Amino acid sequence: MKFMKFMHAKEDRPTPPEVYNFRLYLTVIGLATALIVFGYDTSFIGTTQTLPSYKRDFGLNTMTAKEADAFTSNVTSLFSAGAFWGALFMFMLLELLGRRLCVLLADFIFIVGAVLCTAAGGSKAMMYGGRVLSGVGVGGFVAVIPTYISELSPPAVRGRMTGCFETFYNFGSLVGFWINFGIVRHIDTNRSLAWRIPMGVQLIPVGIVALTIPFLKESPTWLLKKGRDQDALRALSFLRNLPVSHQYILEDVGFIKSQIAIEQSLTVRRGQTPTTWSTFRAAAKEATLKGMRNRFGLVAMLCLLQAWSGAVAINYYSPTIFTSIGLDDTTLWTGIYGVIKSGASIVYFSFLIDITGRKWPWITSSIGCAVCMYYIGAYVKIANPGDGNTQPPSEVAAGKGGAAAIMLFGFLWSFGANGLPLIIASEIFSPSVRSISGPWAGVNVWLWSFVVTKSIPSMFRAMGYGIYLWNGTVLTLSAVYAFFFVHETKGLRMDQMDRLFGAVGEREVAPSVVGEMVDGEKEVAVHMEHAIADALLELSVPGAGFLPDIAPLANTQTKIIAPATTVLFIPRDPPPSLSATLMPSNIPKGQIYADIIIPSTIVVMSQPRGASTATMGGLMAARMNKLGAQGVLVDGRVRDVAQLTDSRFVHMPVWSRGVSAVATRGECKAHAVGMEVWVGKSRGDLIMLDPEDRCAVCIPQDQVGAVLEMVEGIATADEVKMVRVLGGMSVQEAISL
Length: 737
Hints:
This protein is of the alpha/beta class. 61% of the residues lie in helices and 7% in strands. The chain has helices spanning 2-6, 22-32, 36-48, 52-57, 65-97, 99-118, 124-152, 158-186, 193-201, 203-212, 220-225, 229-240, 247-267, 276-286, 293-307, 311-324, 330-356, 359-383, 393-413, 420-427, 434-463, 466-485, 494-502, 519-525, 529-538, 576-579, 618-626, 641-644, 704-726, 731-736; strands at 551-552, 560-571, 602-606, 631-638, 654-659, 668-673, 686-690, 695-699.
């Protein structure tokens, strides 16, 4: 287990060792097994279609060359077309059915397709239908499983867990090649069994998945979005190997619920219960927002760059290069190329991805692969290895260099364009848009796969060696693109992705203080609190968001804006009228509220009116500060002022209505964390603390957009009025103009 822990990214918070457990690994392996058929198809179908028994059974021997090419092309391309529609199909089902049932549905469809292909005999219609259905199943797998795995995984090992997708894909690719290698050497290729075995082998991994699905846990993110909190807690408890009441589990739930609440507040009206349709509509709306559009564009661009990175061209021409330099057993050498490419991918995505990250491996891989492509292109141009002519020793030596370049390309490609697009796509999107983002990635993969596989033969005929120069140029541009536009996402929590893609770059992933805020918060914070309050007044927010009589305990120059974590206090012995309306406490028995607050937030504490005791003291504040709280706002009293204002104990701003010498237990008790509270006449999801004017303001999350639209105009108008008054105008004149 220590070895496993070495291979993960820097943890986003102290993580119990139990989190890195075999329940998680076995769950991920069970899901990733489905992707074996994805890689298997890329390698077995081409060789299978060249077997004599296959050509005989499907009548290729009696067809014209054009008809045979059309049939072979259809069998290949219908799989990609089916995969495209399978990914698109998941747009409608991912939120409705959840992740687990979508995997089950895709698995069932694939099984039907594989059975049709295996039993097709000489029926072209059965083969076509089976290939389409198999493609639909694989398209569903690609659209759902990376997102599913990402939502199940802790941030520090999320890349490695999602990388199992690529590991099993490459394992399937190896099996697909070597099964035909064995069949050609050990089975009479004139028997129908020779092509039925490769077709039937597809049923093994999907059969394993079918047996595994009943034991899988549904995504906690999806469960929380559906209001199934207890099911989500149980799922997380199982996956993290921790009790339901453990702080790490509660923090996970808090992170996810906070993200979901903020996102739904942007798209679902307050007080409404989200339905599947409203959630899908909200996801579509959010996908068009700033900070989200760039993510969808990034995924589309990475899938395009992956498709044109040159792997298809290498697969197309490598046997010719091997033959030209005297390597007669081209299937063996092509297989060795596959071993290098797949083996390196398995090692990288199993052990290294959460150490090296995503951005720089992509850049390094792209540059190295571009050099290989340029060399191969130059060799093909000079030696023309496919013309059948005897080559001079110098060109034979160059051909050996070309073979080495092919092997080196396979190694370098393994940790770049080979798998990173889908891994990045699975981890950068917020929970509320995953019903769209997963299928979006799948659609782009299969769209460009279809385009490239259809284009490459024609491009070879028209361009010859130029195809390698084209791929080398694309790879060079890919490295440049990654340098400027691909952010490092290694080890980030899901809620931190919004900060990363909403800000200028990865250095902006930090909470709260001005200069480190995400764009929306920063735009609010640069304005004076009175302009924000005026905007909230225009929007009919109760009390204009202002929190009267709450002031900082010490002088500070730090202006802060951050989401709120609320803590509701109630009387120690609540009257029956209050007890009848209270929701049950969500603070686990035996735990203290200060131990379960959400990092990177301002803790807002609501004390019952008229209470004379302190709600918080130095001990609680120090603990919350240690957990990452950015400030505390107490709608009530505090004590231990000397500690609260001493940076040795507490180095975050503390605001309150007053002080007390009496501990909380004298009159009150903490009842709930994360429950809606009212502070004066205001409630809000973002809290702004402005020490310059000693004012605190609540900004409801669903009003942030409207505030941003209004506040700049209000602030500018106020500045103009001040200039007019200083210039000698009366107040009435300054206002009237």
